[in-house]
Amino acid sequence: MLTDPRTGHSRTAPLPAGPQDVARAVATARAGAAVWSALTTGERARRMLRLAQAIEDALDEYVAAERAGTGKPEAEARGELEQCVDLVRFYAGAARTDLTPAGGHRLPGRESWVRWEPLGVVAAIVPWNYPTMMAAWRFGPALAAGNSVVLKPAFTTPESALLLARDAAETLGAGVLVALPGDRDTGRLLVRADVDAIAFTGSQAGGLDVVANAGLRKVSLELGGNCPAVVLPDAPDFTYERLVLASTYNAGQSCAAPARVIALRENYEETVRRLGAAMRERRAGVDFGPLNSADQAARFDAIVGGSRAAVREVGEIATAEDEVKGHWRPGMVLAGVAADDPAVAEEVFGPVLTVQAVDDVDAAVAMANGVPHALAASVWGTATSAVLGLAARIDVGEVWVNCHLEQTAELPHGGRRQSGTGTDLSVLAIAEYQRPKTITVNIS
Fold it and tell me: What is the CATH number of the domain that holds 279?
């Protein structure tokens, strides 16, 4: 049974796709790939622009679908969907770019060049925290590269994927973007099906399961963050409010959200005080939405309840009368936590900031790099050499300086170590869904 995260009320769930449904979806995409890959890049771009326009024209419908499974505030959902429209338009243009090495006279009496060819059918398995955006991060570059896509949304958030498939059939053509709602078993069936590549965004356990079943097929993984934010003594005044805003956006259910604040001992007390003051101003139900499900809420409660934090600063919950049974949790600052505290060692995936003290910058770097995840981080300070030096030493795929959780289609995003492999966003992501073929001609 699915529930509305805001109210806890039940809502209709499509039946999970079984083996025959999966085989049918992949076969449809296989036929669609043959037609889509044969189009010129210009024609693919024009059709993707039509898809972007279709999403924009039906934006209210997409917003309602997004909110049904996530409970996001309307402004958040609308802003994210506007970003999705922009992302599809970006990849429509990127489809006409050329990243290949220049052709030319590389061998005596020969001319050579490189063709970038699509992989075929891409299985895109996306999570519930950003149902449409994470789908667009995957299908945008995959379609631009000439592949068809079977899109498997999370079980709790199928609505927007079904809308995307509807509008894609009208604008891109039959079988180019196919939706496959279902549960984890559906995802496992899809990974084992006759697809040519798998793009997965989700938990580390899910990513390892994908790798175990993918064989030699190409895999792109984004597996979470537990991201550090290093606050230096000369951090700007806006640091604390913006960290709290980023940590509570989407109720903290963002892989790249700040989670572990690291301060030097000389500014630790001020950091705790100012983060606590900012968090007390944030109200679940007004400023940010609920957790996605009862399971997520129970996990949050277990981690926070098991924390040995010496200081707890807690925000408010301000819900409407019909929302009291929703999956609401307040924002929290947990300070005085050890490295093995569950709120530090695990990715809480909720509106929580932990705060830890270190003796110096070297210790801050060690602590920032001290968890298995390595997706993103931020550094807060005003001395240019210090903040840029820290940004270089933190071993993650993306570092923000005096900001956090700010992304655009032009800039790449991807994890290291247990946060995954591969690249999302930017023209670099197109290479995730293509393979090069060198052609050499004897002209002597």
Answer: 3.40.309.10
Number of domains forming the structure of the chain:
2
**430 contacts: CB under 8 Å, gap ≥ 6:** 91, 94, 95, 97, 99, 141, 144, 145
Please give the torsion angle defined by the CA atoms of residues 359, 360, 363 and 368, in that order, rounded to the nearest 10 degrees: 110
pLDDT digits (tens, 9 = 90+) for 407-443: 999 999 999 998 999 999 999 999 999 999 999 999 9
Residue 435 in tokens:
């393979």
Backbone angles phi, psi at 111, to 5 degrees: -120, 135
Give the pLDDT confidence of 282-314 residue by residue, as tens digits: 999 999 999 999 999 999 999 999 999 999 999
Q: Tell me the backbone φ, ψ of residue 189, rounded to 5 degrees.
A: -60, -40
| Helix residue ranges, H only, 116-158 | 131-144
Pairing label, strands 332-335, 352-358: parallel
Predicted structure pTM score? 0.94
- Which residues touch 91 (CB under 8 Å, ≥6 apart)? 48, 140, 141, 143, 144, 409, 430
Residue positions annotated with a catalytic role: 222, 255
Which candidate, 134, 147, 122, 137, places its Cα nearest to that of 198? 122
Q: Which range of residues forms the domain containing residue 260?
A: 227-407
